[in-house]
C-alpha cells in the first residue's frame, strides 16, 4: 500500500474550473478531495443511492440542503442522505478545499434539478 495525495491521485475537472482527486475509489466507497475557486458552484442535484459527507479542509463554503443553507468553515462537515437535493457553493473570494465521502460512490448516481420558470396563468 502506498500513500495517496492530490499529487499522485487520479485527477478530474468539474463545473467551472473546479478540481477533484480520487483519494479512494472503490465499488462501495469513494473519498474525493475537491477544490473550488472563488465564486463557483455545483449544480443543484440529488443522489438516488449515495449517502455523502462533505468536510471542509480550507476556506468556507455554503451548502444548500433541501432549501436550507449552512455555512461550513474549515473543520466542519455535513451529511447529505440519498434523495436530498443539495448544492455546494463558494461565495467567498478564496478557494475552498473539502473532502467528499460517498457510499456507495456517487458517480453515475446524480440527478440534476433544473429550475423551471413559473407560469402565472395559462390561456386555452
UniProtKB/TrEMBL annotation:
Q: What are the UniProt keywords, alphabetically?
A: Metal-binding
All residue ranges annotated as the Cupin type-2 domain in the record: 34-100
Q: What Pfam family does this protein match (any one)?
A: Cupin_2
Keyword Metal-binding on entry: yes
Q: Which domain of life is it from?
A: Bacteria
Task: Give a yes or no for keyword Zinc-finger in this entry.
Answer: no
**The protein's name:** Mannose-6-phosphate isomerase-like protein (Cupin superfamily)
Amino acid at each position: 500500500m502506498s500513500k495517496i495525495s492530490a499529487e499522485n491521485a487520479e485527477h478530474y475537472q468539474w463545473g467551472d474550473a473546479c478540481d477533484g482527486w480520487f483519494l479512494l475509489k472503490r465499488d462501495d466507497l469513494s473519498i474525493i478531495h475537491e477544490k473550488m475557486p472563488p465564486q463557483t458552484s455545483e449544480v443543484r442535484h440529488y443522489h438516488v443511492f449515495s449517502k455523502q459527507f462533505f468536510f471542509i479542509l480550507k476556506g468556507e463554503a455554503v451548502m444548500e440542503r433541501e432549501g436550507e443553507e449552512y455555512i461550513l468553515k474549515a473543520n466542519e462537515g455535513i451529511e447529505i442522505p440519498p434523495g436530498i437535493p443539495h448544492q455546494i457553493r463558494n461565495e467567498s473570494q478564496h478557494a475552498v478545499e473539502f473532502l467528499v465521502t460517498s457510499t456507495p460512490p456517487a458517480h453515475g448516481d446524480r440527478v440534476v434539478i433544473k429550475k423551471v420558470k413559473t407560469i402565472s396563468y395559462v390561456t386555452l
